[in-house]
Amino acid sequence: MATLGAPARTAPLPAAKPAATAPHKLGLGALTAMVIGSMIGSGVFSLPQNMAAQAGPLAILIGWAITGIGILAFAFVYKSLAIRQPKLDAGPYAYAKAGFGPFIGFASAWGYWISVSVGNVSYAVVMFSAMSYFFPVFGAGNTLPAIAGASVMLWGVHALILSGMRTAALVNLVTTIIKIVPILLFIVFAIFAFRAQVFTLHFGGGAASGLGSMLTQVKSTMLVTLWVFIGIEGASVISGRAARREDVGTATMLGFFTCLAIYALVSLLSLGILSQPELAVLKNPSMAGVLEHVVGRWGAILINVTLVISVLGAFLSWMILAAEVPHVAARDGTMPTWCGGENANGAPAASLWITSGLVQALLIVTLFASGDYSALFRIAATAMLIPYIFSFAFAAKQAFAGTGYAPGESRVRDAIIASVATAYSLWLVYAAGAPYVLTAAILYAPGIVVHVIARRERHERLFSPIEALVALVIVGAAVLAIVSLLSGGLTLHA
Fold it and tell me: 20 to 30 A Cα–Cα from 203, which one of 53, 185, 277, 440?
């Protein structure tokens, strides 16, 4: 039996099955749709209220400026890594493992999987909350009928992915196109309805507004903006299924600029239609309330219907991403081998069953815990920061060391961009705050057991001394969080 600190003994593994045979390869359109479809889910429809609830127009402008620079650095890093590290598939986890060893790689894979799974639960909640506009029985999206409906949706998407990744990607492309058109229509109406005097009414927030200092307001926007950009790595995660490697970087950049323009316009234009205090109390999806104010009830109907379509598409995208990471990680020994099975259609069947089972369990927990959409997406966003931080730190490490670069090739730009992406990720950890960081530790801690199983399968050392210390810190933080939650000392503020 391998023990802590014992020398690794690597058992031979069977040859890895190709990630996807030729008929299952994805082109630029499908990859771009995966990026945009992953990012544009439910978040954009709640942006007006989510941003205005804790920040004034000036803080939101600053928040978007910081986010634009930070996420652009994310996009550039993933584009560069896709080209310079063609043998590393599945995005953030693969980069983290290559740069910082097996346990950090595992933690990144586990964190990514957990984050996307929790994110899908938040999608289900907000989707059925939107449907309560037509069917009040769904309430806030966490009633028994809502959870039952979300479960039906989950297993329908599960069956679609089992039919083949290419089929699922085509459906995602169609839903992505369908959901963008009404959002663009909202932007057009909002431009004509925008009033500068409304936008500047509570411009700086100020002490009287109860929003706090400018720094507090800007920090409050950070997890919201991160949430709507999670998925920027979508093409990298499924890069092993790309027809052409260079399309991965192109899809990432196209997705970033498209979504940044949409998000900034939706949140800022809304502040010129309804004032910050009015937006702050809107029911989500708040975009529906804004458009209803401009054009009447049919605007709210349009947005609520679009949200349902959008979430269906994003739910599909995220289920693909959630299943792909454990599947690829199992092939290189990061995850247990039972996560790596494929069916006859080339779909990651084993990891998909595990993922669907987890999402179903979380849906049931949400029913009894009366889970809130805002808390769920903040937990998911915080959990995602670990794979982000280590993949960007890997890019910085490669640039400073010159690995993957031709002799004499300039590395300065890549080093600066990767350093900015890493710094921005660390800033997001600070902005998230201790309650969400500690709660994320609860999600990471069970993964340590799975890591041990995977290492024992290969008869390898469980942890290096540094990895053991990191694991102990995670467990300690998780225990502290659980005790604090039970005692009421830890609360999650939306």
Answer: 185
